[in-house]
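Section: Multi-chain targets

For targets with more than one molecule, the full set of components is provided together so that the structure can be written out for the assembly as a whole rather than chain by chain. Components appear in the order listed by the source. The example entry contains two components.
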Amino acid sequence: MPGMFIDVKVSEAVAGDAELSAKLVEVCPVSIFAQVENEPLQIVEENLDECTLCDLCIEAMPKGAVEVRKLYE
Amino acid sequence: MRFYEYESKELFERHGLPLGKRGLAHTREEAREHAEQIGGPVVLKSQVLSGGRMKAGAVKFADTPDEAAQLFDEILPIVVNGQTAKSILVEEKSPIAQEYYVAITWDGRRKLPVLIFSDMGGIDIEEVAEKHPDHVSQTHISTILPFTPRLAKEAIGATGVTGSALNRLTPIVTTLVEIFLAYDLTLAEINPLVRLEDGRFLVLDGHIDLEAEARDKHSALVEELGIGADETRQARPPTPFETAGAKVDASDHRGVAGNVVEFDGDLGLVIGAGGGSLTLFDAVRKHGGRPANYCEIGGNPSVKKACELTKLVLSKPEVAKIAVMMNVVSNTRVDIVARGVIKGVVESGRDPAETITIFRIPGSWEEEGFKILERYGVEYCDRSVSMYEAAGRAVAKMQAES
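Its structure, encoded as tokens over all components, is:
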């Protein structure tokens, strides 16, 4: 189930890069990202609404690679 | 956390308070053996975590060991305020000349322990205070300065007790205060404390409540008394609703969303923050509202936790609406709680605008929280609206629709 309040999009380039994906998994404090071996980065939908808007994911990636959208605005 | 009478007496005895000969019986044979060892008339008392034992017939007197065994069978199954005993205390029957009351509890207004003493024990102390106020003294106790026998003597003397009784009561009262402070109790009560016909003093009945948060600190005592880790020792067993609340809180380590207590009203409460829960609960009642529950949220619970608590509160059929109110928050985020509560309402199949009477959580990230509430048409307010006023608005909405 997608988030009611928050949506997160990750560029295909980052999602397909194991090293950058691992970085996203590491920085997110509420486990929105998950990595499975030999698969693109996954978004854990049930954790989307836990997003604290800390922007750590945005800051850890190349500009524009991660978008955090507030669905209530 | 409440202690059974026999556990309270065990603690009293360790500190030298005078107690009669007694034994705890789990079977009729044990009751007979204890009565034989005591060697005279005995009283059998059902061990439940509730008052009203005498009225329920769960306290009886026996003149012989055979009668004690027979009464054991009669008393054990008696239900006292919903509780059934697992054991019976067999104690020597004492010829009483005078009954006294002594207790230490917390005075919430003064934020200090208060020693209550009366020379009219054995009956309801509230009744004594109302009908015979000159027979009850109240003495606040410092939690910093030592409690001295002189203070105990003043408290006892204030009720008119003098002479030998005053001298013999003083160390008992002093010791009870020391027990209260040493074990972080919320109640240490002896009622009655009696003077026997031969002049001796005895603790006839006693109750202890340990502050639940201090249980770990006093785990050695709890273990020595044989209290199991799974025994909550509340005044009544938790309802399924309350058990579900504890599960919500335990499901996620982030923050608190629990301490749920069930009431029979129609206004669900999602409340908390720095004593805010108690204040808000009282404010709702002061305005004539009927809370369906008490709870505590704080410490920045996750969205999921706030959501699940909201769903639980709304699961009660009689709950038409909820009020979401907290004191000013700093470490709890307003927007996270707003998300959780709205999600809980929506997942319960209800409309947030219709269901949430008021959202009054000012503080950290409130602008973000207010955006969410506006999006869902929920009435909200900031710290310019007092908790009391917010509670009044919630109750007014309930009353407007009834």
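The interface with chain B takes residues 4-5, 30, 49-50, 52-53, 70, 72-73 of chain A (CB under 8 Å).
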